[in-house]
Amino acid sequence: MTDTPASPRCTDVVFDFCGVLIDWQCAACLRGHLPDALVERICADDDPYGFFHYEDLMDRGQDFADVLARYRDEFGDDMARIFDYYIRHYGDALPRLVPGMRGLLEDLHAAGTGVWGLTNWSHETFPVAYERFPRLAELLDGVVVSGVEKMHKPNADIYELTLRRFGLDAARCLFFDDTAANVEGARAIGMPASRFTDAQSAREELVSLGALPAHRA
């Protein structure tokens, strides 16, 4: 009987940003500046005013000025002024780090595990993340930003670029994202991935994979 070889130890962890490292809240930027009912409609899952769709175009590498012009054509001047306000005050949509994640990143560093970022984010608004949370820039060994690369999760090319750029072995990585499609995109190119729910669950999984010592759990 042949023993099944053990899975390789996880040596590098790749994190999505919004919903994993940073608590992104569109409504936090708009509340207090607009009627609550309008804020709720703008931020609804069915995206009736197109904020998420047009922000996604920016995440894919399109410039804000071009996106805003297209937004105005579809939704008119009044909504375009609101979308413009949202993008120009983007830091207000990032109220805090996800609870427990700063400590998790610090513990991974202390354990000698690589810590990386892979995010769908506009090249124009991504710098706001580091302005709001400068410690993130210190804790991440490198980041791939979709709007800079003009690549976009869950397409294979952005995961493959991340592995090449940072010299990572896919089999020794774990990727965390809060979006199921992005998790599947990583798995499709051979990178183990998990759907993020909270810092404690992520920590427990990383302990089980050898990326953190058990006594830190």
UniProtKB/TrEMBL annotation:
Listed name of the protein: Haloacid dehalogenase
PANTHER family: ALPHA-D-GLUCOSE 1-PHOSPHATE PHOSPHATASE, FLAVIN MONONUCLEOTIDE HYDROLASE 1, CHLOROPLATIC
Highest taxon listed in the record's lineage: Bacteria
Family matches, as Pfam families: Hydrolase
Naturally occurring in which organism (per UniProt): Bifidobacterium mongoliense
